[in-house]
Design goal:
Elements: H1 9-19, H2 29-40, H3 45-55, H4 59-68, E1 80-85, H5 88-92, H6 95-106, E2 112-113, E3 119-124, E4 136-138, E5 141-143, H7 148-157
Parallel strand pairs: 1-3
Antiparallel strand pairs: 1-4, 2-3, 4-5
Length: 159
């Protein structure tokens, strides 16, 4: 295992706190993977191994969870990860057009990253904001009732 994938003492304390909320360590996989992704930016094989070792669980179990959920990135993503909902409500109100225009502007497709690593783009099914469609998320910030001009303004405002 690559030794650069180790949790700090503070992170290990947080993992112990997370584990204490559940009857068994296996139930803590999702929040610990989320913590790992926040630290390393994505969930590589080495990161999954570190999580498995830290939680004293089989690597196969951690891999199963990490590969099932799309919220865990299996490759490096941009500093600003843009998710565009194209499910029914958002699609009917222009979500698919917004996604296509962002693709053209950034020159990347679904689950791709710009060459400078600044942006990545993902087309997602439903983000639970049907009443505020169309909507996008950039990292953990959600934008509802959005049009492409709003997207351009938001992207231009990012440092």
């Amino acid at each position: 295992m690559d030794m650069s994938y180790t949790f700090s003492q503070e992170e290990l304390q947080e993992i112990e706190r997370i584990k204490s909320r559940y009857p068994e360590a296996k139930a803590a996989i999702m929040p610990v993977l989320w913590l790992a992704q926040a630290k390393w930016g994505w969930i590589s094989e080495d990161v999954m191994r570190t999580v498995a070792t830290t939680l004293n669980l089989p690597l196969a179990h951690v891999k199963g969870v990490a590969s099932f959920y799309t919220m865990y990135f299996k490759k490096p993503m941009g500093r600003y990860h843009i998710q565009v909902c194209t499910n029914v409500s958002c699609m009917l109100l222009g979500g698919d057009t917004i996604f296509e225009r962002i693709q053209e502007k950034l020159g990347i497709g679904h689950n791709e990253r710009t060459a400078d690593g600044r942006f990545s783009l993902e087309e997602v099914e439903c983000m639970g904001a049907c009443g505020g469609a169309p909507m996008i998320a950039i990292n953990e910030d959600y934008y509802e009732n959005i049009c492409y001009e709003d997207v351009e303004r938001i992207l231009a405002s990012l440092p």
